[in-house]
């Protein structure tokens, strides 16, 4: 097989099959201007919060810790405010720079040469550094899902219900849907190296999409609503995934419809789960507790069952008491008889 | 300072390649541990400032030869025994490692990367690999130990096989046309991309309040101490005295200057302690009220108390683990997880930069590599209405999880087992003692396949 592929690779070197081309990464070069912008952003966005921190003692505490000691108890509010101002100022400044860069040179899709002299590629690098700065700050926040706001501001449609902080996502030409999930270590690429060129193509992800852990989405993919990309799966350039299907493998292929998977797993968990013994290759039963949500009727039935049990027990206790009484009575009678006999 | 310590240690014991036992009696292993601990602090500092140049400088300073890699997008590089060429691109989440642990052995072997190499996203370069000029290692693939990749070619798979030649593209305009031929419809035009959005019934206010208290509340006492230290101690003693050489001769000031870093580190540790304390209080409450391990029939738009507690509990663990793992003292994580009561962790277990969840019980002397991820929950079905499996893992003593492994819920492992890089299990897998596993789904390596993967480097299997 390998020899055949090699031959075909040599023969059609001109017409490159883009679906078989290896998935690589994106690349950006640090030019002096980008480093300058990067440092400038760091300094500017840290200006206001640092001023607030430095004036905390003289401003909030009135330079007296003994009488105003209670103010320290509210330092958690202060820290939150400092942090938020840092985040928002970084976002504001970053957006400002991005708008200016967009005015100088409009970002566009295409194949660009990886070279500083190429204007498209040069501005791609500049945009990338600014966005990198913004996302570094937002991902280090204690509520990481707030970074959805940063996604929104950086021209990537996103909503606040989706979780997208665990993976690596490219920072432009992506359109996210509502309620999506990006798994741990999943990668969404909208730019990729082909030969000595950089391909930039828009990725569109629909509503309710789940990208599995460590999966890779290549530039140009369109994922329909409700589709799932499995663990360790990858798409090829320009692939279109149909809605409500589960895709696995590399490049991704249809596996099963997501509804059937749901029903199958439900059945399996009701019948009893099976575990794989890896060393021997056998299967063995494995008991896992199943939780079912109880609605009002189920809860009422549960309560009735409990009441019935209580009632039964009380009857048992009553019967026991009666038995005891009878026993005692019988004992007394026997004694009487004995006494009478004597 | 780190360079100073490193050079001293290297003078005492020169770093060597080879196969060593993971034992305190083995000198090579001991010194490897020492070196990696010393390197941790400067590398952490360099990563904190988020300037890739700084990290590159730090790596170069700590002994990487001719480090002119163009681009390391969130990838991971071991900091010794790697030789770089020029113009190398390393992808997101991919790992170049010069040391690997297999059972009780530590293997260190030199990795040589030539010029113009591209290593795709999520791929692993194992120790001993030699990659020649102009080759591409595809994404999601791995080289075997001591493999040699030829020049001008493209490799793919685990272990990597040659699939085609890497040739320069001739017709760029045609290629561009063929790629951009189909115009993708945008969200508004295409109906396949939209569905009715389901309302989620997640109590976000509880999350925000508890998270806020954990994060901000842990700053109250350390903050008080910090302000007292600065305004009552540092400013009157040091900043208000006019600068002259006499300051250095003053014994009092000298002592204060010596102790300031210690006090600052102490305050930082106090903050970490309070983070762990508050989370443990919340976590125990959620654990007491919440469900144990099992399968849930989840419907996100319906309110269910048991699931709410489950979601809250998993949220609570997120920030403390993040803070401890990204702090300069990552080994405190073991103490923290034991203190919170979410995991049982044996003595001597080491966590690198990995993902950690609750209900994973580790034995003694385990090792979790970079980006390793053992999960405790899995979802089957459509978003919103799904079967959620929540089940922890039981792991024996001396287990080794190498970089980029994945574990699904219900994993059970014996002692002395090893996961090679990129191994992933299925739900409820059970492993016996002494195995070496590879692939997705994970399979035990028999003698031949083990020899294929490990070559002449490791013969004891």
Describe this structure in words.
The complex is a heterodimer of chains A (342) and B (461). Chain A has 342 residues and is an alpha/beta fold. Chain A folds into two domains: 18-251, UDP N-Acetylglucosamine Acyltransferase, domain 1 (3 Solenoid); 296-326. In chain A, 45% of the residues lie in helices and 16% in strands. Chain A is built from nine helices and 18 strands. In chain A, β6 and β7 (197-200) form a beta hairpin. The longest helix of chain A is centred in the last third of the chain and has 46 residues, at 296-341. Chain A is flat and about 130 Å long. Chain A starts with a helix and ends with a helix. Residues 1-14 of chain A have low confidence and may be disordered. With 461 residues, chain B is an alpha/beta fold. Chain B has a domain at 2-165: UDP N-Acetylglucosamine Acyltransferase, domain 1 (3 Solenoid). Helices cover 36% and strands 18% of the residues of chain B. Chain B has twelve helices and 30 strands. In chain B, the strands form eight sheets. Chain B has a six-stranded mixed beta sheet with strand order 2-5-10-13-15-16, with no helix packed on it. Chain B has a six-stranded mixed beta sheet with strand order 18-20-25-27-29-30, with no helix packed on it. In chain B, strands 4-9-12-14 form a four-stranded parallel beta sheet, with no helix packed on it. In chain B, α1 (2-12) packs antiparallel against α2 (27-48) and α8 (251-289) packs parallel to α11. Chain B starts with a helix and ends in a 7-residue tail after the last helix. The chains are: A alpha/beta (342), B alpha/beta (461). Chains A and B meet through α1, α5, α6, α8 and β16 of A and β5, β10, β13, β16 and α4 of B. β18 of chain A pairs parallel with β17 (294-299) of chain B, so a sheet runs across the interface.
How is the topology of this model organized?
The complex is a heterodimer of chains A (342) and B (461).
Chain A: H1 2-11, H2 32-45, H3 47-54, H4 56-60, H5 75-104, E1 110-113, H6 119-139, H7 147-153, E2 168-169, E3 174-175, E4 181-182, E5 187-188, E6 191-194, E7 197-200, E8 203-205, E9 210-211, E10 216-217, E11 222-223, E12 228-229, E13 240-241, E14 245-248, E15 253-257, H8 258-271, E16 273-277, E17 282-286, E18 290-291, H9 296-341
Parallel strand pairs in A: 2-5, 3-8, 4-9, 5-10, 8-11, 9-12, 11-13, 12-14
Antiparallel strand pairs in A: 1-7, 6-7, 14-15, 16-17
Chain B: H1 2-12, E1 18-21, H2 27-48, H3 52-61, E2 71-72, E3 76-77, E4 82-83, E5 89-90, E6 95-96, E7 99-102, E8 105-108, E9 111-113, E10 118-119, E11 124-125, E12 130-131, E13 136-137, E14 148-149, E15 153-156, E16 161-165, H4 172-179, H5 204-217, H6 220-239, H7 246-249, H8 251-289, E17 294-299, H9 305-316, H10 318-326, H11 332-340, E18 350-351, E19 360-361, E20 367-368, E21 373-374, E22 377-381, E23 385-390, E24 393-394, E25 400-401, E26 406-407, E27 418-419, E28 429-430, E29 436-438, E30 443-444, H12 447-454
């Amino acid at each position: 097989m390998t020899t055949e592929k090699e031959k075909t690779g040599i023969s059609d070197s001109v017409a490159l099959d883009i679906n078989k081309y290896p998935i690589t990464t994106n690349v950006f070069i640090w030019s002096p201007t980008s480093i300058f912008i990067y440092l400038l952003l760091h300094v500017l966005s840290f200006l206001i919060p640092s001023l607030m921190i430095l004036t905390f003692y003289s401003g909030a505490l009135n330079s007296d810790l003994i009488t105003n000691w209670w103010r320290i108890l509210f330092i958690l509010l202060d820290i939150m405010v400092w942090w938020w101002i840092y985040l928002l100022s970084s976002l504001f400044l970053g957006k400002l720079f991005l708008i200016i860069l967009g005015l100088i040179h409009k970002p566009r899709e295409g194949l660009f040469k990886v070279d500083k002299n190429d204007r498209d590629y040069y501005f791609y690098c500049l945009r990338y550094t600014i966005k990198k700065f913004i996302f570094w700050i937002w991902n280090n926040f204690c509520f990481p899902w707030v970074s959805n706001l940063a996604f929104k501001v950086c021209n990537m449609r996103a909503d606040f219900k989706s979780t997208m902080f665990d993976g690596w996502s490219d920072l432009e030409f992506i359109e996210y849907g509502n309620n999506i999930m990006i798994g741990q270590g999943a990668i969404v690429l909208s730019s990729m190296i082909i030969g000595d060129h950089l391909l930039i193509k828009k990725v569109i992800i629909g509503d309710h999409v789940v990208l599995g852990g460590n999966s890779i989405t290549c530039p140009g993919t369109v994922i329909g609503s409700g589709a799932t990309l499995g663990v360790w799966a990858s798409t090829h350039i320009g692939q279109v995934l149909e809605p409500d299907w589960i895709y696995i493998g590399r490049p991704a292929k249809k596996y099963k419809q997501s509804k059937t998977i749901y029903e199958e797993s439900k059945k399996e968990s009701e019948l009893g789960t099976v575990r794989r013994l890896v060393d021997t290759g056998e299967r063995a039963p494995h008991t896992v507790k199943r939780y079912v949500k109880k609605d009002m009727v189920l809860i009422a039935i549960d309560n009735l069952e409990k009441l019935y049990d209580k009632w039964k027990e009380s009857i048992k206790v009553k019967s026991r008491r009666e038995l005891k009484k009878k026993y005692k009575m019988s004992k007394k009678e026997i004694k009487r008889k004995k006494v009478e006999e004597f | 300072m780190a360079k100073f310590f490193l050079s001293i240690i290297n003078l005492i014991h020169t770093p060597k390649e080879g196969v060593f036992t993971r034992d305190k009696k083995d000198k090579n292993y001991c010194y490897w541990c020492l070196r990696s601990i010393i390197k941790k602090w400067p590398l952490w500092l360099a990563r904190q400032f988020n300037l890739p140049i700084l990290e590159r400088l730090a790596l170069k300073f700590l002994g990487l030869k001719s480090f002119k890699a163009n681009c390391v997008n969130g990838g991971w590089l071991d900091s010794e025994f790697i030789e770089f060429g020029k113009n190398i691109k390393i992808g997101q989440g991919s790992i170049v490692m010069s040391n690997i642990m297999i059972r009780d052995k530590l293997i260190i072997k030199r990795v040589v990367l030539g010029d113009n190499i591209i290593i795709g996203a999520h791929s692993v370069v194992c120790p001993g690999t030699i990659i020649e000029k102009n080759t591409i290692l595809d994404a999601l693939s791995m080289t075997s130990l001591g493999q040699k990749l030829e020049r001008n070619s493209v490799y793919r798979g685990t272990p990597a096989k040659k699939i085609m030649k890497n040739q320069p593209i001739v017709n760029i305009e045609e290629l561009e046309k063929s790629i951009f031929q189909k115009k993708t419809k945008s969200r508004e035009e295409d109906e396949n991309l939209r569905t009715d959005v389901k309302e989620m019934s997640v109590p976000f206010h509880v999350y925000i309040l508890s998270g806020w208290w954990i994060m901000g509340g842990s700053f109250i006492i350390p903050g008080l101490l910090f302000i007292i230290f600065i305004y009552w101690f540092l400013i009157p003693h040091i900043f208000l005295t006019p600068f002259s050489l006499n300051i250095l001769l003053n014994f009092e000031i000298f002592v204060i200057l010596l102790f300031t870093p210690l006090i600052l580190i102490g305050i930082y540790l106090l903050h970490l302690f309070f983070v762990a304390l508050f989370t443990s209080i919340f976590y125990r409450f959620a654990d007491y009220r919440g469900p144990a391990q099992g399968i849930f029939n989840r419907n996100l738009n319906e309110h269910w108390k048991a699931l709410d507690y489950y979601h809250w509990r998993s949220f609570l663990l997120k920030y403390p683990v993040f803070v401890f793992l990204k702090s300069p003292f990552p080994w405190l994580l073991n103490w923290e997880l034991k203190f919170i009561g979410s995991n049982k962790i044996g003595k001597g277990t080491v966590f690198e930069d990995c993902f950690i969840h609750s209900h994973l019980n580790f034995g003694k002397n385990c090792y979790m590599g970079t980006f390793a991820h053992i999960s405790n929950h899995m979802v089957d079905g459509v978003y919103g209405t799904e079967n959620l499996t929540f089940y922890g893992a039981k792991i024996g003593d001396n287990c080794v999880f190498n970089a980029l492994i994945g574990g699904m819920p219900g994993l059970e492992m014996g002692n002395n087992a090893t996961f090679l890089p990129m191994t992933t299990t299925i739900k409820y897998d059970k492993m016996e003692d002494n195995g070496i596993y590879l692939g997705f789904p994970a399979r035990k390596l028999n003698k031949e396949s083990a020899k294929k993967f490990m070559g002449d480097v490791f013969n004891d299997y």
